[in-house]
Amino acid sequence: MSIDVDTARRVAKLARIRVDESDLPALADELNGIVTFMEQLNAVNVDGVEPMTGVTPMRLKRREDVVTDGNMPERILKNAPDAREGFFAVPKVVE
């Protein structure tokens, strides 16, 4: 498949991209390069090849899911506008 200047103009219009007439030949060449690369990819036999999520197979590091206080309550409460006895102090909302 070959993309000419008229096709490049139509693609630009469909994509809502303003392209100057002088830039259309370069756009057509670039689109031809993309189509050529896609044709090369289609020629590759991928029967029996498992899909990959990454280039190198690796298992993600995992940590134990444990609830903690962060071991720094003083630093956390330092940001609170009001803290009492190691807790955030908030206004009473229930009567």
From TrEMBL:
Provide the catalytic activity annotation: L-aspartyl-tRNA(Asn) + L-glutamine + ATP + H2O = L-asparaginyl-tRNA(Asn) + L-glutamate + ADP + phosphate + 2 H(+); L-glutamyl-tRNA(Gln) + L-glutamine + ATP + H2O = L-glutaminyl-tRNA(Gln) + L-glutamate + ADP + phosphate + H(+)
Where is coiled-coil annotated? none
Q: Name one GO biological process term.
A: glutaminyl-tRNAGln biosynthesis via transamidation
- In which domain of life is the source organism classified? Bacteria
Q: Per UniProt, which keywords does this protein have? A: ATP-binding, Ligase, Nucleotide-binding, Protein biosynthesis
Q: What is this protein called?
A: Aspartyl/glutamyl-tRNA(Asn/Gln) amidotransferase subunit C
**Protein family (similarity comment):** Belongs to the GatC family.
Record keyword Thylakoid present: no
Query: Which source organism does the UniProt entry give?
Result: Neogemmobacter tilapiae
Provide the assembly information.
Heterotrimer of A, B and C subunits.
MF terms (GO), sorted A to Z: ATP binding; glutaminyl-tRNA synthase (glutamine-hydrolyzing) activity
EC numbers, comma separated: 6.3.5.-
* Keyword presence, Methyltransferase: no
Q: What is the lineage of its organism?
A: Bacteria, Pseudomonadati, Pseudomonadota, Alphaproteobacteria, Rhodobacterales
PANTHER family (UniProt xref) = GLUTAMYL-TRNA(GLN) AMIDOTRANSFERASE SUBUNIT C, MITOCHONDRIAL
What this protein is reported to do is described as: Allows the formation of correctly charged Asn-tRNA(Asn) or Gln-tRNA(Gln) through the transamidation of misacylated Asp-tRNA(Asn) or Glu-tRNA(Gln) in organisms which lack either or both of asparaginyl-tRNA or glutaminyl-tRNA synthetases. The reaction takes place in the presence of glutamine and ATP through an activated phospho-Asp-tRNA(Asn) or phospho-Glu-tRNA(Gln).
